[in-house]
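comment on this one:
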Amino acid sequence: MNDKNWIKFRMIAWSIVAILLAVVLAIGIKGWGGSTFSGNIFTRGFTLSNMKVVKELKFDDIDDIKNIKTDFNTSNLVITENDEENIKVIVKSNKKLKNKKYINAEVRSQTLNIGDFNNKSSRNIFGIFNGYYLEVEMKIPKSYKENITINNRVGDITFNSDLNLNKLDINIKTGDIDGNQKINSKKITIDSKVGDVDFNSLEGKEIVIDCKTGDIDILKFSGKGNIESKVGDISCDIEDLKGDFSIKSKVGDIDLYINRDLSFNFEGNKSFGEIDTGLKFSNVSQSSDYFLGQYGDNPISQITANVKTGDISIND
C-alpha cells in the first residue's frame, strides 16, 4: 500500500471512530442520565477549590467486611490509604446536596455497599446542566486484603495508595482510570467503555483489561492475562511473566518493553503497519504481516501481540 492510500485509509478509519464515539455519547446521555455529565464532561474546567465535605462515614469492623462494592451514577472515586484500622467514606461536592442520602454506604452480608442507590430517580436528561460535581474518597487501611468491585457509569477512578487484594473488579462506562501506586491482586478485571487506563504498577496472577475506546499505559506489568483496546494505543512495560500474555488493538499502536532477563516465545500479527524490535530473537519466522521468534533459553511463556491498523514495537 503506497503512502497516499495509507493516509486515506487512516482518515477513513478515524472518521469511523469519530462516528462511533458520537453514538456512544448519545447513548450515554439517554441511558445514564443527564446528571451524569454535569460533573464530568460539562465541568472539565471546574475548579475544585470550592469542594466541601458533605458526608463522612466510618466502618470499624473491617474484619467482617469481605467485599467492598461501589455503584455510582456520576461521581469521581479516589482511593487513598487510611492510617487507622477502619474504612472511611468521604463525600465531597461543590454544592449542598438536596438529598442527604445521595451517596450512602451500608454493610450487608459482609459486603460494604457504597453508592447512590437511594437516588436512582435522579437519572434524567434534565439534570445535565444542574452543575453538581461529586467526589467520593474511600480511605482503606493496608491491612485490608479482600475484594473490591467498582462500578462507575461516568466518573474518573484514581488509586492514590498501594493495594494488596484478593480480587479487583472495575467496570466503568465513561471516565479515566489512574493507578498512581502499586496495585497487587490475585485477579484483576477491568472493563472500560470510553476512557484512558493508566497504571504505574500492576501485578496479578490473572489480569484482564478490555478497553473499547482509549489508550492503555502500564509502566510496570507483572503477571499473565489479556489486554485489549478496540481503538487506542497500548504501552506496556513487562517486568515479569507468570504465564501467557496477550495484547491486542484493532486501531492503535502497541509498544512493548520487555525485561531482557525473561525468556519467552513471541508472536506478532498485523494487517496495516510495521513490526519493529530491538531484541535479538532466535528461530525467527516472518512475513509482511507476522513475526514469530524465541527470546532467551527454554522459554515457557508466550507473548502474543495483534494489531489490525497500527505498529508493533518491542524494546525499540
